[in-house]
Amino acid sequence: MKNVKYIILFIMVLMPFVNSCTKLDEKLYNQVAVKDFGKTQAEQDALVGVIYPGLQVYQFNDPGLLSLVEISGGMAVIPRRGGDWWDGGSHSELTLHSWTPSSAMVTYGYILTGDLGGGTWYKIYHNITQCNQIYALINTGSGDPALKQRTLAQIRGIRAFWYYVLVDNFGNVPIITDFYDTSLPKTEPGQRKKVYDFIMAELDTITNLLPKGGPSLTYYGKFTKGAAFAIRAKMYLNAMVWNPQGGTKWQQCINACDTLLNMGYQLEPNWQTNFVPHNEVSQEAIFSVACKAGDGGNSILGYTLHYKSQEALNVWVGPSNGIAGMPGYIKAFDTINDIRCRESFLWGAMISRVTGDTIYTAENRPLIYSIDIPRHNMEDGWGSAYQETGARCWKWPPEPGLSTSMENDVHIFRISDVYLMKAEALVRRDGGSNGEATTLVNAIRERAFPGMPSKLYSSVTLDDIMMERRFELAWEGFARQDKIRFGHFGDPIPGWKDYTDPIDVFDNPAWFPSGHTHYDLFPIPQAARNANPNLMQNPGYAQ
């Protein structure tokens, strides 16, 4: 109990410094000096535990990371519904690929000043600052050197994960590792390559010091060797986009996937085991956001469901009728036979559990979730949809009677994703069909279409693998990344957006592979550049 009291007191004194870059004066808290804290595994675990709640950025909320990547990637959409969900055009900009560094989407979706509730850019750098702070405290403290190195490796792993997210979405971002350095960081041409190389160097240094990979309740939600190799596989898979100067890395991706496939992770026989409440039991989970009902819980239902659907679903979360599946994305499924479709998307009539009648919206229309999202009042080019239109996210089903955010964890990386990454790398390496790739994809499809051998492939193409990723990983944060890698990010979405024009007066071919556009990267927020003039804007955006 005495150690627990010290741990709690120490964590409490960390909180005022989460955004500080000034030197901390030594003070005494109860009977333990800060410099003397962290000598034992339990004390160091308490320190490292401060950085894990930051992973909550990796889920759906408004604004939030998964919202940015799934909407811009055409997997989901937030239509305007009367006076709701316009917000200065921020949500339409994500679908239309019309954002700018100072647009409503950027201002609202990336950095909100004045509190800790800001958007993706702000929160990620807040999390990196926390990593740097805890790293500095442990690194300069006393304690067993070997224990310290293992703990520091875990912190550097989480920091590398955040830079993986940044190199994917923002590209040319500052690398900050010294908590006590108060100078304004600088970026310059070629910065994305530097960030790519930094991530790989960090993983090379820390991997052997990390906890073992493989399913483990002891290390569940922690940064392990499995998480390190999952990031490594993603870095190699996307190398042709993120670091084209270094060339393709298909064999390196295959090798990283093989390492993961030999760690004991395995496909769950029941696909939904990965998403139901208390899904920490999943044997597929490589790296996860541990959610807790209430504060820090999975908040997707409040973000997606209609206000009046609570009575039909026995879910009492105060929903806001926001995000829905993009109709064309859903229709690409076998909506009848693929179990992943109905377990990822909710559509149909909402029937009152009390009266047995169909529920009606405030617009006096039956609350029947539709896949299609017809719009009216299209004079402004975006229009307005009725409240009930759009299939809602149902990938993380709630416990009955839920009245708060959910316990359902969000698995950032799953082994089924590794199956598909390896299959893609094999086909790209060989320039065509590959028998092992076909076997890997069919293992995924056997689970999705139980007892239906006609749904298996005799030979897979890159297009097959691209579509299988869409079916398997809907709502999981890969729509934008995958479409960019496959060269389809700018494709039109019938009824919603035209082709994203790849020709722009600001485009610089040295920055982007052929066929890509500057919208492949989000802009550096103008608010961030106003605070730090040393930050270079991404190419293609007004400087």
Summarize this, please?
Helices cover 38% and strands 6% of the residues. It has 20 helices and twelve strands.
Q: Could you explain how this protein is built, in words?
A:
With 543 residues, the protein is mainly alpha-helical. 38% of the residues lie in helices and 6% in strands. The protein is built from 20 helices and twelve strands. The strands form six sheets. A two-stranded antiparallel sheet has the order 1-2. Strand 1 and strand 2 form a beta hairpin.
- Oligomeric state of the chains in view: single chain
Spatial strand arrangement across the major sheet? 1-2
Q: Kindly, what is the distance between the CA atoms of the first and last residues, rounded to a whole number of angstroms?
A: 56 Å
Class derived from helix and strand content: mainly alpha
Keywords:
543 residues, mainly alpha, two-stranded antiparallel sheet, two-stranded antiparallel ribbon, 20 helices, globular
Question: What's the arrangement of secondary structure elements?
Answer:
Elements: H1 2-14, E1 28-29, E2 32-33, H2 41-48, H3 65-72, E3 76-77, H4 90-96, H5 104-110, H6 120-140, H7 145-169, H8 191-206, H9 225-237, H10 239-242, H11 250-261, E4 285-289, H12 300-304, H13 310-313, E5 324-325, H14 327-331, H15 339-344, E6 345-346, E7 348-349, E8 368-369, E9 375-376, E10 384-385, E11 392-393, E12 410-414, H16 415-430, H17 435-448, H18 462-472, H19 479-485, H20 526-531
